[in-house]
Design a protein that fits this description.
By secondary structure, this protein is α/β, with parallel strands linked by helices. It is built from twelve helices and ten strands. Helix 1 packs across helix 2 and helix 11 crosses helix 12.
């Protein structure tokens, strides 16, 4: 049976303020839990008008407390924005509150523009190469968790509280071959962001699997394929709903960052022939249609990538329609909830 999960960006629409978007995320998580989805990840983005998710640890705690079975995690924590010690403390705390239900997804990008990134990091070291900075922070995070600082290192004396639990499972996130290679080298899970990547998903995930080195964290590779899906009862209705995502993407290409538009506004929007062609091309990263149609497309991609799990994000304007899209996909894949023993 295919494993299905949710990636939620807490979409802000032109009719939904950010605070209501966060409430919708909790409601969607409860819905996904009841439907039998495996995990529910929330993103970290800053100063983006269409995304309300800026504090994943807080949202994770709220969602985990409102659900029973589904794993809850970050998709992801943008490590360049945070001191590794703080990440270790926060996710150990989450693991202590919700043992066996938390995931720690880590990203290399800041999740925002350069000015906001500077505001987030201005009291930290500046001028560091982003990839090298991530590697150093990532290595430090693992040292905090394992307590493996050398005996004479000043950090050796610091206790990461709570010190009787370890970090939850770690997944590295990526949209290129870099994170795939790193995930394989360190022996951790890998999640590929097909929904915005220009790099080939099959190349990244198959390379990860082929080069995976067993580690203390994972004995075998585990690849997650994150995809954008808009599903509805009919092909026509799915196309109508997907027009919001089309216009939102086009606006971002124009440098316009606004809340997710309604289908009515999107379908009435003026585009040049070149823009319409660009939108059609972008549809390669957005799976649209009735559930049977979408499943056939996802099955082909999952086979090509050898993905262990499909993680769905659905940029749909109407919250009820978004919930229905996840419900239709759950029904098509015949997933079912596992009753909690609690």
């Amino acid at each position: 049976m295919t494993v299905l999960s949710v990636l939620d960006l807490s979409f802000v629409t032109e009719a939904t303020p950010p605070s209501a978007s966060l409430a919708n995320s909790v409601d969607l998580a409860i819905h996904a839990d009841r439907l039998g989805y495996e995990r529910y990840w929330v993103a970290e983005h800053h100063s983006l008008a269409s995304v309300a998710s800026s504090a994943p640890e807080v949202i994770i705690a709220r969602i985990a407390s409102a659900t029973r079975n589904i794993r809850v995690g970050s998709g992801g924590v943008m490590l360049p924005n945070h001191a590794p010690l703080m990440v270790a403390e926060r996710f150990r705390t989450l693991e202590a509150f919700f043992p066996g239900r938390i995931d720690l997804g880590l990203g290399r990008a800041p999740g925002t523009d350069q000015t906001t990134s500077y505001a987030l990091r201005r009291h930290q070291t500046q001028g560091q190469d982003p990839e090298q900075d991530f590697l150093e922070r990532f290595q430090e995070l693992l040292l905090w968790d394992a307590g493996d600082f050398p005996p004479n290192h000043p950090f050796k004396k610091i206790a990461v509280m709570p010190n009787d639990v370890r970090l939850p499972p770690i997944f590295l996130l990526g949209s290129s071959d870099y994170s795939a290679e790193l995930s394989a080298q360190v022996g951790m899970g890998f999640a590929f962001a097909h929904h915005f990547a220009s790099y080939d998903a099959a190349a990244a995930l198959t390379a990860y699997r082929a080069r995976f080195q067993p580690s203390q964290w994972r004995a075998t590779p585990y690849g997650i394929l994150a995809v954008a899906v808009v599903s509805a009862e009919t092909e026509a209705e799915a196309e109508r709903l997907a027009s919001s995502a089309d216009l939102n993407w086009l606006r971002r290409m124009r440098g316009e960052y606004r809340p997710l538009p309604s289908p009515e506004e999107a379908m009435a929007a003026t585009m040049t022939d070149r823009e319409r062609a660009a939108v059609r091309s972008h549809r390669r990263q957005l799976f649209v249609g009735a559930a049977t149609t979408v499943k056939a497309q996802l099955d082909a991609l999952a086979a090509a990538t050898q993905a262990d799990e499909i993680m769905i994000t659905s940029p749909i304007y109407d919250h009820a329609a978004r919930k229905r899209s996840y419900e239709l996909m759950a029904m098509e894949y015949a997933i079912a909830p596992v009753e909690s023993a609690a």
